[in-house]
Amino acid sequence: MTDKDDYITKLEAIIAQQSEQIAFLEHKIVSLLEEIAKLKIRKGSHNSSLPPSSDIAKKTKSLRTKSHRKSGGQAGHKGSTLKMSSTPDEIVELKNSFCSACGADLAQESFVLQAKRQVIDIPPIIPVYKEYQQFSCTCSGCNHRQLADFPHTVTAPIQYGSSVATLVSYFSVYQSLPYNRVQKMFKQVFSLPLSEDTIENILDKVALKFQAVYEQIKTDISQSAVVGADETGVKVSGKKWWIGAAAVAAWQTVLSTFIVAADNRGFKTVEAFFAQGFPNSTLLSDRWTAQLKTFSKNKQICLAHLLRELNYLIAVEKSEFATAFKTLIGSVFDLKKEQNSSQKACEKDDTRALLIEKQLTDLLAEVLDEKKCPKIAVFQSAMIKCREYLLTCLYHLEVAPDNNASQRAIRIIKVKLGGTPQKVSGQFKTGQQTFCVIRSVIDTLIKRKVELIQNIQVILNLQPE
Fold first, then answer.
1. Whose CA is closest to 53, among 416, 457, 460?
2. What is the pTM of this model?
């Protein structure tokens, strides 16, 4: 072999080595680009169970598909407008004293009403001090000294009445105003100075008076046909607490809300409030282990949660399985719309339900490449475990395919904490259970479509101090 041949052989070896290294690096670059693409896909409320606050400045993406309907009010929607009162509190008659043409006196002329306009105003609000004077007398017949009783709600020389307690509860718990803003509201609007400690004391007393109603709500929920459950984390004096809500739906109508605060997210919290579970109910929840472990007649997994998970999985791993599963869930929602319209659920032999059941069975039996789609493989495994909880809603008209009612019940906690509700930003310092009791009663009154302020005051007046 000549020197030239030897040189060529060496070059070929170097080229082969470099070609192998280039191929390796190209493969590495592709893998890194895929990882970077996955990292760019962050989880938010549109593709996971994270709350909307996790989106920060990012615009949330709706799970709804585009509708053919135009934006704005829809046909058949009942609108409302400002209406005149048939019994105005004050009438101002506008009559001219002199004729603008000739200057003649019009005092003796007959006037005819041509038009009327009304202005709505709120008079200055000032506190009303009601004094109860207790008198006694001596019976001339038996010489007994008869002393009149104070009303059962009047227990101190000076105290705030039920209307004050009602408004404090309304502004603090329902409207989610912080203590300092409630304080300013009462001072500036109602001319009644309240300290933050007074506000807290009033709320504690309201919660005690609401306790009997709160317990009744709990009983109603335990006996309901459908119970939805959700939970969220909050901080209490810097420590992590869990707040859970059970929202009851019956015949597509949410009737009650029961909210509790606990320092434990595990099953023992469920046991503490619903030890017997829900033997006559379908329990609607996400895949929180404590809820799935809770005894109930039936269960339904929130399909809206699954849709958000699938949005993320489709973006990250681009699997046909995830796309097909999302389409399947969409068909469940479509069928539920038909059921709500016809007011009739599917029987076990309904061809529409059987088709969805078969599609689900086929998807769960599909063999996935765990190396290529590890996250989707985990999702499939979870769905296999929850198989019997995925389509319960198709066979029970009153069972929704999503858990939105419970999410709305629990979302108010984040709204409340977002506005410095207590004395520490973003957390409860005290009063977390007080808030839960009052909010449970308020939400239940609203869901049962009764007048809120009036009924809060009725409850407060009925309960003894």
1. 416
2. 0.76
